[in-house]
Design brief:
The chain is an alpha/beta fold. It folds into two domains: 5-345, Glycosidases (TIM Barrel, Alpha-Beta Barrel); 370-466, Immunoglobulin-like. 31% of the residues lie in helices and 26% in strands. It has helices spanning 5-12, 38-44, 55-60, 62-71, 83-86, 96-107, 125-128, 132-149, 175-180, 183-195, 213-227, 249-257, 278-297, 316-319, 337-345, and strands at 15-18, 27-30, 48-53, 74-77, 111-119, 156-161, 200-205, 233-236, 239-241, 262-273, 301-306, 323-324, 370-380, 383-392, 399-404, 410-415, 418-420, 425-429, 442-450, 463-466. The strands form four sheets. An eight-stranded parallel β-barrel has the order 3-4-5-6-7-8-10-11, surrounded by six helices. A four-stranded antiparallel β-sheet has the order 13-14-19-16. The protein has a four-stranded antiparallel β-sheet with strand order 17-18-15-20, with no helix packed on it. A hairpin with a 2-residue loop joins strand 13 and strand 14 (383-392). Helix 8 packs parallel to helix 10. The chain is globular, with a radius of gyration of 23 Å. The termini are far apart.
Amino acid sequence: MLLNRKRRRAVIAGVVTVATAALGLGLSTQFASAQTTLRGAADGLNKDIGVAVSYNLLQNNAQYRNLVATEFNSLTAENAMKWDATEPSDGNYTFTQADAIVDFAEDNGQSVHGHTFVWHQQTPSWVQNLSGTALQTAMIEHINTVANRYEGRVASWDVVNEVVSDSNGAMRDSFWLRGLGEGYITTAFQTARAADPNADLYINDYSIEGDNAKSDRIYTIAQGLVNQGLLDGVGFQAHLILGQVPGDMEANLQRFVDLGLKVRITELDVRIQTPADAGELQQQANDYRRVAEICAELADCSGVTVWGVRDGDSWVPGVFPGYGAPLLFNDDLSKKPAYNAVLEALGGGGSGEPTTTPVTTSPPPTGSGCTATLSVQSPWNTGATYSGTVRANQNLTGWTVTWTWPGSERISNAWSLQGNLTGATVTGSNASYNGTVASGQTTTFGFNITKANGSTASVPTVTCTPA
């Protein structure tokens, strides 16, 4: 039976013995409180903080194993559940590694996010050489076999992975597309839904964190799957380059939430040109913090999974020569600045809520068609992140907010808001997806500012006008 969050919290409250029988190993672990571990902080928010794990390291490295059990409440098999690992030849399945990871998760009160059924890489050549009915039959049989084996033990699955190309939002020219046409995506989800009706089903891809042609295509695919009742969530891999968290990431995730979907950061890492200096490691920490804050602030973000534990085991240097140091832990498993940033973003060291200290103006009178407030979420020396809320006092089809900064504050980038934003007087309107608001309901927007070094981030009074 799948361990739910209530069960996982009960596990955290005491001492857990990691009886990893499938690995032939035993370990006694004391889980720390929400104030000191990623796991405790994430459970306080009812979200996942996950990690991609290596079977070999779980088997052979006790320090790695202990850290995985202590710091994370969700596991993804980095490779052990992919097709080449589970069915290397037609009909010959091997689940030794995948079973061991699922057993480890259950022994430690962790959920499992399954990765992945259908992908154009790490799929055996015997599958790639098929076409037509034979290819579709192989796909269906593979999904059924793997999903049936872990039914009730795996909480969610990446059903299809990386189906859109990197250029202009076209479909990826994979052997799947050439052999079956775009319909293979629907067939994969139909099969997974029937095989494990209680698991959440995700479509997963990279470079879709911002609003671009690729994420637009994923959005279109998602709409079609939602209309058929086949899709529960979208996975955003977030293999990021230092300093390049998209400014519109939160707004982009929100538009998928508005489809009724969950969103999940599934494979987070932030790569740096090596060797990394202290300033770059701090920028990396800021990037991790921003992504974790976005998920913490979105009710329908199910969690964040970091793609690996320690820098030396990451896939990054092998694929991007000259880049590395992308994860939360050094090779000796000591914590990097990015670890502390994620912990703080999830509420570590405090009450279990995100480490934001909203300073909100008194609401304007409620007699107008809409009202709006601003709050400071994350201030720093030369800037701050703000959250804005628009409340509808009548049914709205659009809205405009206006305010004037009293000092040097200026918006540097914004999400879910557009218009004349960069001057002392701000006039911003809704984006295409957050203008319709029913009476009594709210919608949100956000932005970052620059300000004088060390000055207080002010909170001006906002005027809201229906469109």
